[in-house]
Amino acid sequence: MIRRYSFGTPCDTGAVVLSLPEEKGEMPYFDVRRDGERVLFRTQLTEEEIVFGLGENVRGINKRGHRYRSWNSDDFNHTEDRQSIYASHNLLVFFRPGRLFGVYFDDPGLVIYDLGDARRDTAEIVSENGDLNVYLLEGADLKEIAKLFRGLTGPSYLPPEWAFGYIQSRWGYASEREVRAVAEEHRKRHIPLDGICMDIDYMEGYRNFTWKKDAFPDLKAFVRSMKEEHIRLIPIIDAGIKTEKGYAPYDSGKEGGFFCKKADGTDFVAAVWPGRCCFPDFLREDARKWFGDLYRPLLEAGIEGFWNDMNEPALFYSDETLAQAFALAESLKGKELDLSENWAIKDAFNAVANNPEDYRRFYHVMDGKNIRHDKVHNLYGAGMTRASADGIRRFRPGERYLLFSRSSFVGAHRDGGVWQGDNFSWWSHLKMAMQMLPNMNLCGFLFCGCDLGGFGCSTTEDLLERFLQLGVFTPLMRNHSALHTREQEIYRFSIWETMRDTVTVRYALLPYLYSEYMKAALTDGMLFRPLAFDYPEDRRAVRTEDQLMLGGECMIAPVYEQNAEGRYVYLPEDMLMIRFRSALDYDLIPLEKGDHYISLSLGEFPLFVRNGHAVPLCRGGENVDEIKTDHLKMIGKVENESIYDLYRDDGISEKVGMNGNVTRIRVGKQELVSDIELKPDR
Ligand code: MIG
Q1: How do strand 305-309 and strand 402-405 relate by DSSP bridges?
Q2: With a 6 A CB cut-off, is 59 part of the ligand 1 pocket?
Q3: Does the Cβ of 312 fall within 6 Å of ligand 1?
């Protein structure tokens, strides 16, 4: 059951697709209080209580014991003390014996969550603006709450099948020659590959929708020839449009009046990569239409996928914030600084970027009214996602596309995926990437992944290998790194063959991973779940923070510590471990419910299959187009009979459903593995 409570004058955030009558009575579970504009929601937590939710954010799967904020932020330093990164996914699920409910705060502005931070026994959620709808979700179990939430907010995005391939990316690829070299090295060494991301370096002076004509003389021909090798190019698009007469997107945006404006009616201007930029008003339908159409030249060149960046929006500086910093510097010039001045001068220059004052300096037009940006800040990235998704759909009707964004809000899960932003090449970030996955799935974002190997600072061989072992299972499997860090393509490393073998497992598992993704998307389920969702009565399972359920049959338990030769794994039931070294080389080890130390040398990683189930493994391939499902090995320990529903489709059509696309595979009693033959799917 879902109930809606309304406070103040909420706007339509686009997150919710169901229209529900407003409840008039008191809201259960919470003491609700007004304090000026703010609305405060307080609830008691028992010692046993667990809190899931908040999608993309730092720290563990259980969010209890910390303070978070919904405020989409371009913050590349995802340390434990952070309260927000790039996304606002305002769903919480409270779970304890005898009490289970979800609560979604449909609020586009700043929301603060104290989840047992000030006091262990109290959660308090504060809406700063006080204009919001709150949805209470009650169901029989955790999975039902997740399903209800998807019913409330709409189905998850369906990517094309090729988007499940391995993608190589790096900030710095600046020419066709460089990109071709990356492709060639992969193909030459038989490292599977389906896509290469082009970062801002492909653009002419960082101008969106342009490309360097000397470095990419014939983009269309380049795209075509890469596609012949089954490699898609995936360009980046940023939110800001360079303020420059004669640059077509600026001229048309200016003419249409599509940029965000200041109180005096002039365009808001702040600097990002290209220098001074204007910011499309993504909350307006006509502006979205205009922006979406700007993707056309790239689509015409044959591009089928994009990543959208800088859409919190990130602001490097504005003339105003810069002037403030300089004024302070000027006033202190020649002085011996006392301590507070010393700090102030540093702070002033740090504050030129992403300054709260700037976010109060410009306006959106919603339903004909001017709304100050900070009131609806968290909708900006989702608006950009929608603009581009609609633009791509208009150009290629009926076909799926790859799209992933840095910033997001619930609702954007219908139009595209997300990546987890700028992590570091840290072991702790490998663990955090894993911990984010189930909460992102809970909030509807099924298509996601992190920068494998780590984005900031230099990776090491073992760290990249362990990252790849997690990436084998994440829908977006992308190796990405920052300019000036150690080169991170697999072939740069002495253990590249080990890494390649790891990637081959992704391709052998692709029929399974694609099936489980599509089933989750088409039935409003989750691909990754906390163990609590499947074993709610098991006190060990519900608090497990470093293992995840994957699809209907499996559990993963990645190694995330340096120099580990294995790890402890808790099995909530009897399972068969597949210990992978490559698509063709693996051990099958039946294990009983309970604790196990599993030895996992650097090139090894496990997948656990619940007894009574069997999962398909194919021969793999070097790209998704090579994946065949006519010969499969069904792996699992089956006592009587098990059924696996294999999902297959043409990989690209938008109109899909379970009907007609599911092949039912029956496996009789088997010890560990059997071979099956199916009719080819294409
Ligand atoms: O200010 O385009 O998160 O993936 O490589 C940095 C350059 C801008 C941030 C993205 C990152 C990307 C980088 N971008």
Answers
A1: parallel
A2: no
A3: no
Q: What is the model's pLDDT at position 367?
A: 84
383 C-alpha vs ligand 1 centroid, how far in Å? 19
Residue pair 67/114 in contact (Cβ under 8 Å)? The answer is: yes
β-sheet with 269-272: strand ranges across: 241-242, 275-278, 269-272
682 has pLDDT over 70: no
Contact 558, 595 (CB under 8 A): no
- Give the model confidence (pLDDT) of 468-490 as tens digits: 999 999 999 999 999 999 999 99
**Cβ contacts of residue 23 below 8 Å, gap of 6+?**
3, 4, 5
Q: Is the CB of 199 under 6 A from ligand 1?
A: yes
Please tell me the distance from the alpha carbon of residue 234 to that of residue 117, in angstroms, as a whole number.
41
Is the pLDDT score of 359 beyond 80? Answer: yes
Beta bridge partners of 632: 676
Rounded mean pLDDT, 84-92: 98
Structure tokens at 320: 């105003």
235 lines ligand 1 (CB under 6 A): no
For ligand 1, the distance from its centroid to the CA atom of residue 480, given in whole angstroms, is 10
DSSP output for 574-640: -EEEEEESSSS-EEEEEE-SEEEEEE--TT-EEEEEETT--EEE----SSGGG---SEEEEES-BSS
95 in Cβ contact with 51 (< 8 Å): yes
Task: Report CA torsion sign: 140, 146, 150, 153.
Answer: positive
Whole-structure pTM value: 0.98
Element (H, E) at 4: strand 2-7
Q: Nearest to residue 400, comparing CAs of 636, 590, 140, 164? A: 164
